[in-house]
């Protein structure tokens, strides 16, 4: 029976991924209906804590966008990239990493990609190089960001085992940065130069007199846009500070110290940040729900609600069978769990949903929490099949067409930088988790 139920889950994920948008979440809901009604599995609790954090962080991002702060933040990134045009392959990925790290979402790359492509083209550099490395860098930044859904879920799971935000950041930040460095070095060797690539010669002729984009125009940002960025960054800093063990708010209940949870900390601070931006930066609440951040955030919420709920229900309803099936195999060769993470996330294209499904499974079958923390970067496999929005955007913004899907689908522009970056991040993460946790 388990295998039929697993097939229902995989079909739901596959169809949902093909539908894109909220498809993953709604198909997860349909799969959950089938498991509950026809296979009589008891639904697990919905992932309330994860959804709470995502909605809070997204709300802060919505307020930032409504105040014009997101555009201002992007303009700073543009200046950094344009300042060093000949080094765009090395500068752009780290700028993309920084901005994703600060905002907790890779969707900020949509504003940076056209700039990266334009700068590379003007400098005579194949746009595929910086674009592929930057798209991969954004994925790595999600692992390292203190306010990403990935980090929130990790804290909600591993906090019960004594690991706090800093336990995770001191592993993932250096690991992710080294992964980005590795991908930039590899991306710099990808493909022929623009002038030597016969496939691009005709395209270059068409673009010869059309290499300017709107971001060359000077935009005057209001004081409110700038203030909203300051408030947002102070909110991020506030989350980090309030998660420091000796700073955490606490209450004495029945003689015991009860600390404010990481989930509540992130949610309260981010909602407060949203309120301050609305109150002091002229961000209109009705404009907040109309922006790109709102759309991306709603997709993330629905995806996690459907898929994580579906996956947890399957695993909780078949614990005994799963234990007997894979426990011995995984415990004898724990590294296999990394491939499990990589494969499932390739299908779901949601790091948060995959994490919520599989990490509890790893703990149930007996993998040590410290080991699982080291394994988590294996989840960065979204690049493997380039249908994720950031990958699609990178290809669309490349005016030369050098960033593309190959003849055999998997031989695309992101494959080598992605494999190198994820491998380095994973290996460094495993090493550091053993060394300092």
Short description:
It is built from 20 helices and two strands.
Q: How many helical elements?
A: 20
How many domains comprise the coordinates?
A: 1
Q: What is the succession of H and E elements?
A: HHHHHHHHHHHEEHHHHHHHHH
Helix-strand category = mainly alpha
Low-confidence stretches: 211-215
- N-to-C CA distance: 40 Å
Please estimate the helix content. Answer: 55-70%
Report the count of strand segments.
Answer: 2
Strand arrangement within the widest β-sheet reads 1-2
- State Rg: 22 Å
**Beta-strand fraction estimate:** under 5%
| Mean pLDDT across all amino acids | 85
Describe the structure.
The longest helix is centred in the C-terminal third of the chain and has 26 residues, at 292-317. This protein has 437 residues and is an all-alpha fold. The model is unreliable at 211-215 (pLDDT under 50). It has one domain. The protein has a two-stranded antiparallel ribbon with strand order 1-2. A hairpin with a 2-residue loop joins strand 1 and strand 2 (256-259). The protein starts with a helix and ends with a helix. Helix 1 packs antiparallel against helix 14 (292-317) and helix 3 (48-66) packs antiparallel against helix 8. It contains 20 helices and 2 strands.
Set down the secondary structure blueprint.
Blueprint: H1 2-19, H2 23-37, H3 48-66, H4 69-83, H5 88-103, H6 109-122, H7 128-144, H8 149-158, H9 165-187, H10 201-207, H11 223-242, E1 250-253, E2 256-259, H12 262-280, H13 285-288, H14 292-317, H15 319-332, H16 336-348, H17 351-364, H18 369-375, H19 389-397, H20 415-436
Antiparallel strand pairs: 1-2
Helix pairs in contact: 1-2, 1-14, 2-14, 3-8, 3-11, 3-12, 3-14, 4-5, 4-6, 4-11, 5-6, 5-7, 5-9, 6-7, 6-19, 7-9, 7-19, 7-20, 8-17, 9-20, 11-12, 14-17, 16-17, 18-20
